[in-house]
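Table S2 (text version). Query chain:
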Amino acid sequence: MSVAVANSTVPKDDVEVRYEDQEKINEFGKLNNRLLEIRAELKQSKTDIETLDDATTELAMVGKGKVMLLIGENFMEVTEEFAEEYCEKKTKKLQSRIEQLENEELSIVSRQDELKKILYGRFGDSINLEN
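Corresponding structure-token output:
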């Protein structure tokens, strides 16, 4: 004698974690760690740009002459013109880096959204993918 159960569903709590699911969970975790790193670097880069902008403003008030420029751990006496160019180059580099990081951040968030849909669809409330 055989018994068939129509429309039976396995509760989301009892869903088996397959290898593919574990791979997606691991990918989500790695992306989340990278996202935290990116956001920290973005914050620091924006702070550095503000500092460079402040320095450029200070240079404009100094007038022509020599100024002390901190490079690494050493101060160097340079012309105001050199210091301004140095600040401009550093600012452009940082702005470029910020743009790269923001693009990577968007890419990661997009992929995480895809993974959330898949994993929440499979596991429901038994998985937490929020910070």
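Notes on Table S2: The helical segments are 19-62, 80-123. The CA atoms of residues 84 and 122 lie 56 Å apart.
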